[in-house]
Amino acid sequence: MESKIFLLCTTFLLLFCSSFPSSKGLQKQTYIVQLHPNTETAKTFTSKFDWHLSFLQEAVLGVEEEEPSSRLLYSYGFAMEGFAAQLTESEAEMLRYSPEVVAVRPDHVLQVQTTYSYKFLGLDGLGNSGVWSKSRFGQGTIVGVLDTGVWPESPSFDDTGMPSVPRKWKGICQEGENFSSSSCNRKLIGARFFIRGHRVANSPEESPNMPREYISARDSTGHGTHTASTGCGSSVSMASVLGNGAGVARGMAPGAHIAVYKVCWFNGCYSSDILAAIDVAIQDKVDVLSLSLGGFPIPLYDDTIAIGTFRAMERGISVICAAGNNGPIESSVANSAPWVSTIGAGTLDRKFPAVVRLANGKLLYGESLYPGKGLKNAEREVEVIYVTGGEKGSEFCLRGSLPRDKIQGKMVICDRGVNGRSEKGEAIKEVGGVAMILANTEINQEEDSVDVHLLPATLIGYAESVLLKAYVNATVKPKARIIFGGTVTGRSRAPEVAQFSARGPSLANPSILKPDMIAPGVNIIAAWPQNLGPTGLPYDTRRVNFTVMSGTSMSCPHVSGITALIRSTYPNWSPAAIKSALMTTADLYDRRGKAIKDGNKPAGVFAIGAGHVSPQKAINPGLVYNIQPVDYITYLCTLGFTRADILAITHKNVTCNGILRKNPGFSLNYPSISVIFKRGKTTEMTTRRVTNVGSPNSIYSVNVKAPEGVKVVVNPKRLVFNHADQTLSYRVWFVLKKRNRGKSVATFAQGQLTWVNSRNQMQRVRSPISVTLKN
């Protein structure tokens, strides 16, 4: 009650001392108010909802308006203790003064970031000894997907052959617009939607250029349907995108159950809605949370996803997040909390060739999912034009920027950027153009994200675009045709790092190597709503059950599904153990046995983390690095986080001095190793613990590839296990060689530490190493 008196006094002073508040100060916006858990005051209320409401009632004291309860959007109790509410700036400031308030954060908006990929990952092989057989296709595991919702009628969510809903399941199938309780089944076992944060931040009027938004868990944009089916979609025969990419579509864990939480709408995904979904998902008893959304890197104590998922992790839920699509910019990786698996994107060895043949005989390689193979009208030779100059953005083919008299009947070159790739084709069609060559710019390089274009079109790389423009500029009447080649698999190097995949080191948390790993995320074919064309554009009248998308949004559910497989195989493993299995067995080499490439160079640890996910190896990792929830708190203490910061992140009110005294020289038992040499230091030491989850009597020997300029010493060099579940420790010293000492600029080096099973040389437990020299 003492804190309430304090809040009342603060309210009185602020109300009467601020006689002339600004109009900005009177505008309401959504704030997330985090409270101290388990306070004495909370016990005086009959429910947490009443306790949360009491803060609002006192913060708006003296304000003559609607009931305070109408301002309360969400009351949180599992992902975080607190609530989301509409507040003025001054009211938010009042709440910050309360001793029971940990933090008051404005609502943030985040953005959303297959017929073949399961084969590329080897999930369909090895018969009874394969991953699917061992894991029973992920049966019994529940994967919660936070995204744009779901199209429940998609064949990817058919429940034929699915087991009954797990008895532990506590969720519901929430009714809403065009979505009834019967929309769920044994595959799609639950669906909810969270719109309050989005609704108060946006006008209810819909844009005429947008498809209709369903006020329910029904997917209006396709992204959530695509990601949910990528992770756990049922088997669908004869799937294709207008004939391309034909085959059997399956998710990574086709036997797992799906629970959908719609948190993303046309204007983005609001953190208040996301936190509410995590809060409910914990209560619903999901096993895995898949979040194909994010933004730019922010500190952990301000990161709603990091805060909400900490409590999910505490309850044994594995959390998988997209790394973000802001690559190849250095330090662009998001979702970097160590209790989250952060997934970058790689390519497949499946191509959709659509070659540009110039009138002079020159061939320029491109790719497209336009169904033009064998269609003479789609492949005929026409004049090529590239419109530049002026202020309308004609080089990007913006709608309204292209003059009809120049475009009609011609093939148009469009630079990537500014507007959507498929939108450019619509802009060309509107003024009578007949085909498009989408040209990568220098920032896109050779990235090949394909689309199901509205007219004959292909995407060419940057090198080809330079040649094409040179030909057009040097030719009086340049002509070309597009030759569509259908679907080709197994002839190209893969995986490679996607150009757009976000890169480390993490700005928010540089002491942990992020991303953790990469997975297929380029040109992924998966389920699609029947209310949309394959481009997702409102004027696309074609209808399909599957379409193609690219992004770390697509790589994330691949790992979510594989996590479900491991969870089904080892139901008692912690989230950290499952992540360790995925990371320490990841591949560094492509299908040709060569180093995975990032552009024209071998991929570094800040692009691929531990490597490309390999489910066949992850199902039998040999050793795992386990982490208990309390270890993350100690880790945050070693980084110098304040007591308030740690309380905000972990909901634990701790004293770091005491924790650090009990844990001298603490190292977080992470599967990767990040070493930061601060200026003047020449030696760093870290400790790791590995648990034997393989053969009872196993011996592992260490193999080290030292980072350049660094000497690495490991003790002991052999680990002898006498029984299963035995845990042994080792130490690693990193010593700067003399030539690297005293450098004044930041320098990076990388290496790896691998434990090799002496009785099975193929079983290797590898940790990537990153070394940073700082000023």
From TrEMBL:
Entry keyword annotation includes Hydrolase: yes
Domain of life from the UniProt record: Eukaryota
Location of the active site: 147, 223, 553
Keyword annotations from UniProtKB, A to Z: Glycoprotein, Hydrolase, Protease, Serine protease, Signal
Gene3D superfamilies to which the protein is assigned, alphabetical: 2.60.40.2310, 3.50.30.30, Peptidase S8 propeptide/proteinase inhibitor I9, Peptidase S8/S53 domain
Domain Peptidase S8/S53: 138-598
UniProt signal peptide: 1-25
Ranges for domain PA: 403-464
Family the UniProt entry places it in: Belongs to the peptidase S8 family.
Listed name of the protein: Subtilisin-like protease SBT1.2
InterPro entries cross-referenced by the UniProt entry: PA_domain, Peptidase_S8/S53_dom, Peptidase_S8/S53_dom_sf, Peptidase_S8_Ser-AS, Peptidase_S8_subtilisin-rel, Peptidases_S8_3, S8pro/Inhibitor_I9, S8pro/Inhibitor_I9_sf
Annotated ranges, domain Inhibitor I9: 30-112
Pfam family, one: fn3_6
Domain Subtilisin-like protease fibronectin type-III: 668-771
